[in-house]
Design goal:
The chain is an all-beta fold. It contains no helices and 15 strands. The chain has one domain. A hairpin with a 4-residue loop joins β1 and β2.
């Protein structure tokens, strides 16, 4: 489901809010059915296969974006705020020491059974455009993640999977650019 509301407040100031509600799941068939016959190594009953549903790696249940833009002659100033529910993740739990390999092995929890924290970010943009007879020239500056939100993108576990630390997403990130349109 998607919902978008746009409004032009004045000739120079406009904004919009968009919300998406989405669910993305996948399935595998679990073969945890009883054995046919006496259970002594026989075949599993194929009618007992039950689907097991879990979120896909890119499932984002809630996605909210708000944009505001103000134009002043050839200048344009804008803000964008994003708020997105955390992506699914498969946590690791402590495993056992493998004598054969000489390493610890971790066990994974059920697929995508946890979620990363909610993602949020505020961006600012300013641009200026010069118009000529046959073309336009512009410069812009983007400041992404203004308040330096530490949005986790992944997780690093210690060698025994006892502790973990998040891998943070893009920090405060300035971008400067030019553009030409013919």
């Amino acid at each position: 489901m998607e919902l978008i509301l746009k409004h032009e407040f004045t000739e120079r100031f406009f904004g919009w809010i968009a919300y998406t509600l989405s669910r993305s799941e996948q399935t595998v068939y679990a073969l945890n059915a009883p054995m046919l016959g006496d259970g002594g190594g026989g075949l599993q009953d194929p009618t007992a296969r039950k689907p097991k549903w879990f979120p896909t790696d890119f499932d984002q249940l809630h996605n909210l974006i708000a944009v505001a833009s103000y134009a002043l002659k050839s200048w344009r100033f804008g803000l964008r705020f994003r708020l997105v529910s955390g992506m699914p993740t498969t946590p690791m739990t402590e495993g056992a020491f493998d004598n054969e390999d000489g390493m610890n092995s971790c066990r994974s929890a059920p697929t995508n059974s946890a979620r990363k924290p909610t993602f949020n970010q505020l961006d600012f943009r300013v641009d200026r455009t010069w118009t000529f007879k046959a073309w336009q020239f512009g410069v812009y500056a983007d400041l992404q993640n203004i308040y330096n939100a530490e949005n986790p993108e992944g997780t690093i576990y210690d060698y025994r999977c006892r502790t973990s630390i998040p891998i943070r997403g893009v920090p405060f990130y300035p971008i400067i650019g030019i553009k030409g349109m013919f």
